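User: Please run a holo structure prediction.
Assistant: Happy to. Please share the sequence and the ligand.
User: Here you go; the ligand is nickel (II) ion.
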Amino acid sequence: MYIDTHCHLSGEDYDDIDNVIEDNKKALVDKIIVSGCSRESIDEVMVLKEKYDMVYVTIGYHPEYADIITLDDLDYLKKLLKESKVVGMGEIGLDYHYGKGNKEKQLWLFESQLKIAEELSLPVVIHSRDATQDTIDTLKKYNVKGIIHCFSGSLEVANIYISMGFLLGIGGVVTFKNSKLKDVVKEISLEKIVLETDSPYLTPVPYRGKVNSSKYLEFIAKFIADVKNVSVDEIAKITSENASSLFDFTK
Ligand code: NI
């Protein structure tokens, strides 16, 4: 059975969410962790977790909203983080892909949320794009554990995050022809990897270009199994154990 540690599941992207959930079950997906990372999507995922057994959630404000998030929004987040099936915070982090114009605001939002996660002892799901050094430096200031979502860095960076106690979220990118991620995955311990789809984005080969879904986790797992030269069952088992030891699914 698979656990999708990071995906998005909005009515904007899927016509029929009942169907998505049924397809997941057929594809041996046991649990999915849906991320709500805007004001609107946080409210949306809080409804989904009540409706579907397999849905757990992480919530937190994505760096792209750094300019609009207020102290009231942070209070609201803190309140919701205490609810059942809210197993972590995220995706939170830093994103300098479109420039560093609001870097100070991004750092403020990131640190404000890390403080809350630390206080509530909740794992964090980290979004870091073109911001590796600042992400590492900021995380080091807080006593938090979690996942580096959609990890795509070098082996050196992978080892830094692992030494800090983080797991690496590996998704469809590993299957892309020009990705060097498989070389990194080959070198790191399976105990440090969790699977994710980041659906509806980053669909793995052979469905690259189509709308992604947690049901495609098996293609990511098969690819990693080949790279690591172990069975796909072993990949499913170990990555699910890794996710279950990080997230409290009894909450
Ligand atoms: Ni995401």
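The mean pLDDT is 96.
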